[in-house]
Write a structure and sequence with these properties.
α1 (about 1-20) crosses α2. By secondary structure, this protein is an all-alpha fold. About 5% of the residues are buried. It has two domains: about 1-60, no CATH class; about 65-115. Helix content is about 80%, strand content about 0%. It has six helices and no strands.
Amino acid sequence: MLPALTLLLVCQLLGEIVIRALGLPVPGPVLGMFFLFLFLLLRDGPSTELRTTAQALLQHLSLLFVPAGTGVVLYLRLIQEEWLAISVALCVSTLLAMLVSAAVMRLAQRPQEETP
């Protein structure tokens, strides 16, 4: 379990380092997940140990939402003041994500044209 956790944390650390070095407006863990994805592509998928560790983490995923809930409570006054902008941003981004997902699915389901 320790090597699998180390791999996950190293990918996250690499993501943080690259994001901070380049000043990109993306969270480091997002880039870290991309690095993990590339690593798994090169190794033809996760090892049994990584798969088991990931399953154990996913079983306790709800604990990871505690800091987010605390942040909501901490910034409740700001959320009350900016509720309209937050609501509009959530609705527009959700609609945009759904439209992009639908477009990607349509492209993916389009039959491949045969070349002569």
